[in-house]
Amino acid sequence: MAWDWVGTAVAGLVGVAGTVFTWLAGAQGRRHAEHMLVLTQQAERRARLWQERREAYFGALRVIDLDLRRERYKELGQLNKLYEVEGHWTKVKRVELTTEAATALWAFGSDPVRELAAHWIRASDADDVTEMRRIALEFRAAVRRELQDPTRG
Fold first, then answer.
1. Within 13 Å of residue 9, how many CA atoms lie on the same side as its CB?
2. φ, ψ of residue 3 in degrees (nearest 5)
3. Distances (CA, A) of 68 to 30, 37, 74, 140
4. At the N or C end, where does the chain have fewer CB atoms within 10 A?
5. How many angstroms separate the CA atoms of 86 and 90, rounded?
6. How confident is the model over 99-121, as pLDDT tens digits?
7. Backbone dihedral region of 97: left (phi > 0), alpha (psi from -120 to 50 degrees) or beta?
8. How far apart are CA 83 and CA 85, in angstroms?
9. What pLDDT sits at residue 150?
10. Closest to 139 (Cα-Cα) out of 107, 89, 105
11. Nearest in space to 101 (alpha carbons), one of 111, 114, 89
């Protein structure tokens, strides 16, 4: 009779141990879920910023393409094509397009691409078409590198 309490005590201890380990497993599960939530939110934020950067770069590339196309038509004396482009892309539309592209670029672009954009603006203001073409090539290459490897920039 002296040993009757041992079974009850062991069962109680096993029950307490089971409760403690269940709580620990739950706590670990909660920590893991919180960690996964943080990782998911970070991934979503990176994806959204990458999309914003992509749109900013495409807007800037449209401005560059439009400016270079107009310059090429002027150089080649293709006034019909120049008037056609300027008829569709009026001065007001071009200014709006440029302003939107610049705003997005300053907000979401990388430092190297923003630097190239600043060089583009100076070359464009100076009507230095040779420099504009050189910068356009550098700009396209930088954009391509960054968009193919989102860890850059």
1. 5
2. -95, 5
3. 57, 46, 10, 13
4. N
5. 5
6. 999 999 999 999 999 999 999 99
7. alpha
8. 5
9. 66
10. 105
11. 114
AA letter at 72: R
Find where tokens 């998911």 sit. Answer: 40
pLDDT band at 137 (very low <50, low <70, confident <90, very high): very high
Mean pLDDT, the chain, integer: 90
**91-108 vs 111-125: helix crossing angle, rounded to 10:** 150
- CA-CA distance, 135 to 130, in Å (whole number)? 9
**Cα→Cα distances 78→6, 98, 130, Å:** 103, 24, 19
Please give the single-letter amino acid code of residue 89. Answer: W
H/E run at residue 1? none
32 Cβ contact partners less than 8 Å away, ≥ 6 residues apart: none
How far lies 83's CA from each of 65, 102, 139, 140, in Å? 16, 25, 27, 27
Torsion of CA 9, 10, 12, 14, to 10 degrees: 160
Tokens of 1: 């009779």
Retrieve residue 55's tokens.
Answer: 């749109």
